[in-house]
Design a protein that fits this description.
This protein is mostly helical. It has one domain. It contains 8 helices and no strands. Helix 3 packs across helix 7. The radius of gyration is 18 Å and the shape is globular.
């Protein structure tokens, strides 16, 4: 799916403001500045977009600074290497372990990274951007539906995220009435 979707999904599933907060939420008054007071929301959003930023984002930034705009052709080989590392279960496991060992509080928001990759598996078709979850042991990937060619996959993902946020709101406000 698109990078913004991954960030929003990560924040939805892996933050105290989102579903991981359950009925209680991020703590404090839910109505008062909850969006800015929960650091896990922004950390989960970051980890949700990180695999794409750490690979394709580098290429796009290099092109932008060179005055070329955003181009999908001429992507250097090292970007594909970074894509393989950031979209591999082994790469995730190593980085997740190091992150949590360094800062234990990141265990929940950092789960947005594997969720990003698991979402990419069925929503990336064949071709160079198939998700290499078994890399470096294998380049195999599931030939799913390309979200950029299948509008129902793209819009269906965004509808799902909207429904999940609706569930969050219902959970929080049902708690207040009880």
């Amino acid at each position: 799916m698109d990078t913004l979707f991954h960030g929003v999904l990560g924040a939805t599933l892996c933050s105290r403001t989102g579903l991981a907060g359950g009925r209680r939420g991020p703590g404090g008054d839910f109505k008062r500045r909850w969006l800015f007071s929960d650091w896990t929301l922004w950390a989960a959003f970051f980890f949700g977009i990180f695999p794409d930023l750490a690979s394709l984002g580098i290429h796009f930034m290099m092109d932008a600074f060179a005055g070329n705009g955003v181009r999908w052709h001429g992507i250097p080989d090292f970007v594909f290497f970074l894509y393989d590392v950031t979209h591999s279960l082994l790469g995730i496991a190593v980085c997740y372990g190091l992150l949590v060992a360094w800062k234990r509080a990141l265990w929940l928001p950092a789960l947005a990274w594997p969720i990003h990759v698991l979402t990419d598996v069925p929503t990336h078709g064949t071709g160079r951007f198939i998700t290499p979850i078994l890399w470096p042991f294998s380049d195999w990937g599931f030939a799913g539906w390309s979200w950029w060619l299948e509008p129902q996959v793209f819009y269906g993902g965004w509808v799902l995220v909207g429904v999940l946020w609706l569930v969050v709101v219902v959970l929080r406000f049902s708690r207040r009435k009880a």
